[in-house]
Amino acid sequence: MESLLIPVLILALVGAGVLLAARALSRRGSRPRPEASPQPNRDPAELARAAAARLNEEQHRRLYALIAQGQAMAAIKLYFEATGEGLRASRDAVGALAAHPQPLPTSAPQQASPGDEDDTPQRFPYRYRAIASKGDVTREVSSNMLNDEIYGRIRTLAKSGDTEAAATALTRHSDISMKQAREFIALLDD
To answer: Taking the model in full, what pTM does it have?
Structure first.
């Protein structure tokens, strides 16, 4: 009988351990979980504007330099440390800033007249890459004076047939020659 006592005790202890583990897991699963995102369904462009407003000029420059270098983790870490927001919120903010580039915050807002937009191109703290290809030919323009809006206007000019105006606008907002701009615009022209 003594020989059966030890295995029965071990079996009882193992059974009690399994019951305690099952109870702990069931309690853990029934707890209400905190909201995964404090701002569900938030517009990414709005999130980018709000995120950029939390950064000073130096942080803004460093963050966009990291984004341009493809160092997403370092950019998230910088945003996390600069703002004190959570890791998930920092990840979302950096993703929104990368998808919707924001201009560098300035200490004094400038009054822009209607004609200033095309006369003196604004320099952004990031480099915008525009790529056009047709067949085996691919051209790339990389400039810190381009953004989605300006490139969209250049594409619209090219598609409407005004290739010379599109090439002129492209040279104004980048550091390429008129010949290179014409080659690039020719790839956009369908």
So the answer is: 0.40
